Structure formats: structure tokens, C-alpha cells
Amino acid sequence: MSCTVPLSRSLVMESESSSLVKKQDALHDACKSGYLPALCVTIVWFAVFIFPFFGQWAQTHGFTPFTGTMGQHLVYWLLVRYGLRFALSLITWQVYKWKGLSDDEVGLIAGPEIDIPTEKLRVRGGWAIYTIDSLGRKLPHMNNWAGLNAWAQAVTTTSWAAFQFDSMNSTIDVVVCLLLLRTVNFWVNVLHWLSVVRTADGYARRANKIFAATGSILGMGVTVPLCSGVLGMLFAEGRADRVAFEHALMTIVVNPAGYGDALAEVVGVHGKLRFQVYGMGETNTKSVEGMVAMFLGSTVLSLSRMRGP
């Protein structure tokens, strides 16, 4: 018995396949070129290192230079950041091997190739790959939002200095990712990329990571310190009160992005009540369980600061 596909359905399938290829190519070109991330990094580095020296006006209004002490603590922070990434990447590699994936297949997941057998790899890895993908991305995500915020508050006393410290963390990561974008070395790819790319994202693995890091520059690095500084000037009285106010506000804003978002994915990967969403990658679904975890992780951990610094 032969099986034929109706012409109209065949045309739809062909159109969807063509659309997917175009989407893949567009993401690949945008990621490979790196124009937008590189432009964002350039603007931020100009603000961090050059802008404070634009006349007496800048320093009079609190736009102080990036200090050697801040640079020293930034190096400490980056050692923590990349130490955690390398450790999670090695754990992810061992989980993949435990599930029967060869080093060639692991190299394919961590490598720069656009076309990978996404569904085949996900089915073979099962729940273990889904879980380790989430933990590998979200534990550093939690550290890079909530942890970085706490570190920045310990080594800076103004929102401008917090912007300088926070944004340098994300911009350096974007530069590293762009430099290693096309590398084919197995160990470099495993150590740097394996824990921060999700198998389920397929062709958008590295693009997702780079654009997310660029978003962190605008969010954690720029928007959060800027808004806390403006609100501190408007509503806080005295320097000590203003610093406490800004730190409390930054914590309230950052906790949901750090803990809430991380819990949403870590819990959500096992959620049963799922629904489709639009996003970057080949598989994009959310769960009701993840939404509840996001809400609880965002509110409960912020209650102490909501009552006042």
C-alpha cells in the first residue's frame, strides 16, 4: 500500500522547511558577524573607561573612573565565573557519556556547526540531557545576577560604579564568546560552550547564548544601576540613606532575574502542564510549574528587602 501526501499539505511542509532554513541562516549570520554585540560592548566600554574623563562636569556629577581596586575584584569575580562554567561543562560531558553519547557527538553539540540532529540527541539523552542543559545554564545565570549584584555592592558605593563593575562582567563574556565563536578545538568547545548551550536549541545554540549575554549588559549592567540611581536621587535623603536605598532596590530587581528565572527552568523542565511559546531555537515550550516557581522564587527571596534596607 502506498502512502501519498496531499499536494496542499506538501506545499505547506515545503514552505515551513524553507522558512526554517531562512531563520537558521539569519541567526547564523547575525551571530557570526557579531555586529550588534560588538557595538554594544564598544558603547559600554566607552562609558566605563572614557566618559568619566570628559571634563570636570563628569566627575562633579559622580561619574568616577574605573579604579584599580574594582579591576582587581573583577578579576576575582571572573575566576569564580569561569571556574563554575568549566566545572559544569565537565560534569555535563560526563553526563552525556553516561547516556551513551560519543565524544564526536558531544563535540557536535558543543561545536560551531549549525545543523545537528537535535531530536535524535534529545531522545537518546532523555531527561538527563534536558536537566543538565538547564542546570548548566541557570546555575551560572543565578550566580551572574544575584551573586554579581552582591559582589558589586560589596566593592562599590555608587550606582555608577555598580554599572561599571556589572557591565564589565557581561561585556567580557560577550567578547570571549565572539572570539571563540568558530573554534573547532574539542577541549575549548567543551570547557567554554558545553554547559551554556542547550541541545534543544539546535541551530540557535550559540546565538542564544551571545544574545542573552548582550541582554545582560543592557539589563544588569545598565538599566538596573541607572534606574536605582535615578530613584535614589529622587527619594532618598543623605548619602548613606541613598546607598542603602539603591542597594535594596537593586536586590529587589535582580532577585527575580537571578533566582526566579533560574528556578523557572530548573523546575519547569520536569513540568507536565506545558504550552508552546515563540522563541529562539528549535524547541520552545514553557510549563505552568515553571511559572509558579518563577513567581515564588521572585517574591519570597525579595520580601526581606521590600520591608526596607
Describe this structure in words.
This protein is mostly helical and 309 residues long. The protein has a domain of 214 residues. The protein is built from twelve helices and two strands. A two-stranded antiparallel ribbon has the order 1-2. The radius of gyration is 22 Å and the shape is globular.
Q: What's the β-strand tally?
A: 2
Which series of helices and strands comes N to C?
HHHHHHHHHHEEHH
Strand content: under 5%
Rg from Cα: 22 Å
Q: Estimate the helix proportion, in percent.
A: over 70%
Instruction: Point out poorly predicted stretches.
Output: 1-5
The tally of helices reads 12
Gross geometry = globular
Strand order of the largest sheet: 1-2
Largest β-sheet summary: 2 strands, antiparallel
Q: Could you tell me the mean pLDDT?
A: 81
Helix/strand structural class: mainly alpha
Layout: helices, strands, pairs:
Blueprint: H1 7-33, H2 35-50, H3 55-60, H4 68-98, H5 103-110, H6 118-155, H7 159-179, H8 186-193, H9 205-235, H10 239-268, E1 274-276, E2 285-287, H11 288-299, H12 303-306
Antiparallel strand pairs: 1-2
Helix pairs in contact: 1-9, 2-7, 2-9, 4-6, 4-8, 6-7, 6-10, 7-9, 9-10, 10-11
Key traits:
309 residues, 2% strand, 12 helices, single chain, mainly alpha, globular, disordered N terminus, two-stranded antiparallel ribbon
